[in-house]
Design a protein that fits this description.
Length: 251
C-alpha cells in the first residue's frame, strides 16, 4: 500500500480558485501601483578595448526644450532634432613620464597605486605582467533646431586599466581627467548640475568607473518652468571596454 502525502496530491478545486484569485490580485496591484517587471537595461553604445570612433545617435528627448520653445512662440517644431554623439579613442600603453608623474597616486580598489603597478617587475607575479593602458572618451547631448538656435552639453574623460584593475582615488577624487561643460547655448540656457565619478562593480566583481554628467536646459533662463533635466554617463571597465548611456540608468 502506497502513501500519498499532501504535497503529492493534485490541487483541489478550492486550491486552484485561491491561486487564481492571488494571481488576479497581483496583476491588479501591478497595474494600479505602477510596479512592472524588471527589464534589462542596455547602453546606447559600447566599444571594445581596441575600438576608436565617433558615432551619432538620435535622442528625441533632447529636442524637448526646442519643442517647448516652438510651442510657446506658436511655431512649427518639425525642425527640432535631438542627438547624442559618442567618441572613444584607441587604447594607449602607459609610459614613464609626465602622465605617470601626474597620475601615479591614483589607487585601485585593492590599494595598488598606478605608480607601484607600473614599477612592479615584469613577471614578478600575474599582476606584474599586465600592461597598463589609458584611453579617452567624450559624449554630448545636443539639439539642432536651426542655424540660429542650438545648445550642446559635453563631458570628456580619461581612465587607466590593465584587464583587472581600474585606478580611482576614492570618493571626491578624480580618476584621471573628467570635465563637463557647455559648448553652445544660443537661444537656450544650459546649466551643468553635476559632474562626478563613481566606482562600481560588475556582477562578476570586476571594477569599473562611471563618469556622470547631469545638466538642464531652459530658454531665457533656467528658472522658467520649461527647464528640462538630462543625464548621460560613460563607463570605463577594467578590461578596457567603454559603454555609453543616457537617461538615469545606474548601470
Amino acid at each position: 500500500m502506497s502513501l500519498t502525502t499532501r504535497r503529492d496530491r493534485p490541487w483541489s478545486g478550492h486550491s486552484r480558485r485561491t491561486a487564481i484569485c492571488i494571481g488576479v490580485f497581483l496583476a491588479l496591484a501591478t497595474v494600479f501601483t505602477g510596479v512592472a517587471p524588471a527589464h534589462a537595461l542596455h547602453p546606447v553604445e559600447q566599444a571594445g578595448p581596441r575600438a576608436h570612433w565617433t558615432h551619432r545617435h538620435h535622442a528625441p528627448s533632447l529636442a524637448k526644450p526646442c519643442r517647448q520653445k516652438a510651442h510657446k512662440h506658436h511655431r512649427s517644431a518639425r525642425h527640432c532634432h535631438g542627438f547624442q554623439n559618442n567618441h572613444v579613442s584607441a587604447r594607449h600603453p602607459l609610459h614613464r613620464g609626465k602622465m605617470l608623474s601626474r597620475y601615479g597616486d591614483l589607487t585601485a580598489p585593492d590599494g595598488t597605486t598606478l605608480r607601484s603597478a607600473f614599477n612592479r617587475p615584469q613577471g614578478a607575479d600575474k599582476a606584474g605582467s599586465r600592461k597598463i593602458y589609458w584611453r579617452t572618451f567624450w559624449q554630448d547631448g545636443l539639439t539642432v533646431p536651426g542655424p540660429r538656435n542650438l545648445y550642446q552639453e559635453r563631458h570628456d574623460g580619461m581612465g587607466f586599466f590593465d584587464g583587472k584593475h581600474v585606478w580611482f582615488n576614492g570618493p571626491g577624487n578624480r580618476p584621471g581627467d573628467h570635465s563637463c561643460y557647455t559648448v553652445h547655448e544660443i537661444g537656450y540656457d544650459v546649466t551643468t548640475d553635476e559632474c562626478d565619478e563613481k566606482l562600481r562593480y560588475t556582477d562578476s566583481n570586476t571594477p569599473y568607473i562611471q563618469y556622470w554628467c547631469r545638466f538642464k536646459v531652459g530658454f531665457l533662463y533656467s528658472g522658467l518652468p520649461f527647464s528640462t533635466h538630462f543625464d548621460m554617463h560613460a563607463n570605463i571597465h577594467a578590461g578596457g571596454g567603454i559603454t555609453f548611456w543616457r537617461g538615469d540608468e545606474r548601470q
